[in-house]
Amino acid sequence: MSSSLADSPLAAYCAAVEAGDLGRLRACLAPQVTLKSPITDRFEFVGVDQVLDVMADVFAVVSDRRLHEACGEGRERVLKGGGVVGGVALEESLHVRLGDDGRVERIELFIRPLPGLTALAAALGPRVARRRGPAQAVAVKAMMAPLAFATRHGERAGVRLARP
To answer: Is the confidence at residue 21, as pLDDT, over 90?
Structure first.
């Protein structure tokens, strides 16, 4: 964690995320926290239990998690960080809203580049869908794996073809 985060209300949140510590993360979240998925806008995770469930999955598939910059003031903050999923690096920006007590009320994620986002979707989607049943997990894996493969390998060729 950078020194820009050390004295912020987000310091405990960032430390918990970087450590993959769900217990410490729980203490940082407001009871009705929402997490807006970077993968779809069709649903979001609402409440501490849902957010912790998805974060457990994130901790299982994303390594080298780091949050290294923060900007903003008052209740609205933006964090920048990243990690690695399935050997693919990703960068993330998190728009975070804090409650009056300093706990996190809302998290909205933005992930780039596309190969990192699709690698995350391919690794995370089946884990999240498994809560609804094994068939849902298999279906999500079947949908996401080709997309992750295509973007990971297609980016190399596309960059060669389109680079200015």
So the answer is: yes
Residue type, 147: L
Distance CA(65)–CA(17), nearest Å, equals: 7
User: In terms of residue numbers, what domain contains 95?
Assistant: 3-112
**Per-residue DSSP letter, 131:** T
pLDDT digits (tens, 9 = 90+) for 85-106: 999 999 999 999 999 999 999 9
| CATH number for position 20 | 3.10.450.50
Domain assignment present for 26: yes
Q: How confident is the model over 53-66, as a mean pLDDT?
A: 96
Look at residue 15 and give its three-state secondary structure: helix
63 vs 145: CA distance, rounded Å? 19
CB atoms within 10 A of CB 70: 23
| Largest separation between any pair of C-alpha atoms in the chain | 51
DSSP class of residue 21 equals -
Give, as one character, the DSSP assignment of residue 42.
Answer: S
Neighbours of 86 (CB within 10 A): 17
Q: Give yes or no for a contact between 30 and 102, defined as CB atoms under 8 angstroms apart.
A: no
Structure tokens at 162: 């389109």
Domain count within the chain: 1
Q: For residues 17-45, give the mean pLDDT.
A: 95
